[in-house]
Amino acid sequence: MTELGAERPNGDLSTRHQVLHLLLSEGAMTAPDLACRLSITPTAVRRHLTGLIKGGQVVENQPDQQPSRGRGRPAKTFQLTDRGRSAFNQAYDDLARQALRVLVETMGADAVTKLGEKRYVDVEQRYRGYRAAHPLADPVEALASALNDDGYVTKVDEAPAGAQLCQHHCPVAHVAAEFPQLCEAETQMFSRLLGTRVQRLATIAHGDGVCTTNIPLDIVVTDHEMVIEHTPRERKRAVENHRATDNNREATSA
Predict the structure, then answer these.
(1) What tens digit of pLDDT does each residue of 65-119 get?
(2) Checking phi first, is residue 89 left (phi over 0); if not, alpha (psi -120 to 50) or beta?
(3) CA dist 81 to 56, 160, 207, 216, 225, Å?
(4) d(CA 223, CA 91)
């Protein structure tokens, strides 16, 4: 009988890629958490992490040394490096940077801003199409879905002052590090689509682990006379209640 997590040599590459993908989508994780998610032994996952660290794709974070009320020492976490992210759709960064430098030289820096705005046209169209088909959907979740279609690995987290849109991958991070106009165009798109002033808290292009955008509580979702101004969880609950009311009304009239 094969021990759980015992792997054949030709399965190493696939499992190692799964480790990278989990660290991409979830952010920093501990070895036990990775082992649990991949259904392999902690020993096996540490072997993969050791190889990825040697290859410069993963870095080990020392645990917080603050005293803990629980038992045992805080666990070490592991996260992707820029080299680790480069395995995900960043093969043409050098060419893109060269092209943008020529664009700036010939047409000025504003040309990059216009290019950034053009780049997000497809995201806007997908978002508006989704909202038209699902008018009661949470607009922030709809935006996350539109971004995911472009490979941004986006999730929505609750925050004390609203919601946080967390992009765990940016296909243009290395280019945006030199041309921040791309990040600015994206932030402006978020504000325009959500109808509120958003705040960019962190970006992968500036060396952060995740692109994080704070979305305040004053998101307004309208459906006929319905207005929702709550946290993401409260918005979702209000939308579900509104949908249930409409369904009951239709059933009664029928």
Answers:
(1) 544 445 556 678 999 887 787 766 555 677 788 889 999 999 998 999 998 888 8
(2) left
(3) 7, 29, 9, 30, 48
(4) 43
Helix (H) or strand (E) holding 89: none
CB atoms within 10 A of CB 110: 10
CA 143/CA 47 separation, integer angstroms: 37
* pTM summary value: 0.58
Q: What is the SS3 assignment for 147?
A: helix
The full length of the chain comes to 254
* Residues ≥6 apart with Cβ < 8 Å to 32: 42, 75
183 vs 206: CA distance, rounded Å: 10
Low-confidence ranges of the chain (pLDDT < 50): 1-10, 66-69, 220-232, 238-239, 242, 245-246
Q: Crossing angle for the helix pair 31-38 and 42-54, nearest 10 degrees? A: 110
Give the Cα separation of 124 and 147 in Å (integer). Answer: 9
Q: What is the pLDDT of residue 163?
A: 92
Q: Give the whole-angstrom CA distance, residue 29 versus residue 48.
A: 14
Q: What is the C-alpha to C-alpha distance for residues 82 and 89, in angstroms, rounded to an integer?
A: 12
Rounded distance between C-alpha atoms, residue 192 and residue 140, angstroms: 12
C-alpha distances out from residue 245 to 55, 147, 154, 238, 252, Å: 56, 31, 31, 11, 11
Assign 3-state DSSP to the chain and report helix, strand, coil percentages, each to 5. 55, 15, 30
Residue 37 three-state SS: helix
